[in-house]
Amino acid sequence: MLELYLDSADIKQVARFQACLPIKGITTNPSILAKAGIGVNQLLAELNPLLEEKARFHVQVVSQSLDEIIAEARQITALPYDVVVKIPATEVGIAAIKQLHSEGIPLLATAIYSVQQGFLAALAGADYLAPYVNRIDNFGGNGVEVVAGLQQLLTQQNLACCVLPASFKNTRQVLDVLATGVGAITLPVEIMEQMFIHPAVPLAVEQFNKDWQRVFSHKLAFET
Ligand code: G3P
User: 54 pLDDT exceeds 90?
Assistant: First the structure.
């Protein structure tokens, strides 16, 4: 089953969508946490009981050098939760992924803007790849094509790595990415919200209510 994540550190919003959807967990990055003004320890402690059993949290390292990234990743993975360590897929980041993969640490290669970059991270041992769909579009590229190309290459090369696209600004991007067969996706709150919305739906529901009340007044369905 597709792993559905919220790309958010907003606890109220996570609770809101967890109530109606099988949210696997959350993805965060330093910008998301800084914007929410909440640290990793507080966030995970509050979300873990809120989310269903086996909630997964993707937490990004903030260290820059190879040794520091490796040391930080080891600390993150020691947290008492199901945590995947996010590492930007730079040359240094991919070197860290190679080392940390050999230690059995679950890893997500993030900030992926091209098929080749994602492919290298997968070869190095990343468990997840996060291509930035909208940001690729913003650079004049095609985020959906990058996701599709990556997905195809992983299948052809028999690499057991899950594509977890991130960075969306509209639901069209989401649907096109899902059609490529990705195993996971992370959506910002605004886009998750938009997935529910269609202007015709409230009108349809209102018409059902009017038609029913005209004939059956306030009786419930099972009472008629
Ligand atoms: O984790 C990466 C993702 O949050 C990027 O999204 O909306 O900042 O492009 P965005």
Answer: no
Residues facing residue 71 across a β-bridge: none
Closest to 131 measured CA to CA, from 104, 161, 159:
161
The CB of 132 under 6 Å from ligand 1? The reply is: yes
Tokens of 60: 């990004």
Q: Which atom of ligand 1 is nearest to the CA of 28?
A: 1
- 99 assigned to some structural domain: yes
User: Which residue's C-alpha comes closest to atom 5 of ligand 1?
Assistant: 167
User: pLDDT tens, 80-120?
Assistant: 999 999 999 999 999 999 999 999 999 999 999 999 999 99
How far is ligand 1, taken at its centre, from the CA of residue 136, in Å?
11
- Whether 52 has a pLDDT exceeding 90, the answer reads no
Rounded to whole angstroms, how far apart are CA atoms 48 and 145? 35
Residue of the nearest CA to atom 1 in ligand 1? 29
Residue 205 lies in a domain: no
Residue at 206 is within a domain? no
The residues assigned a catalytic role are: 86
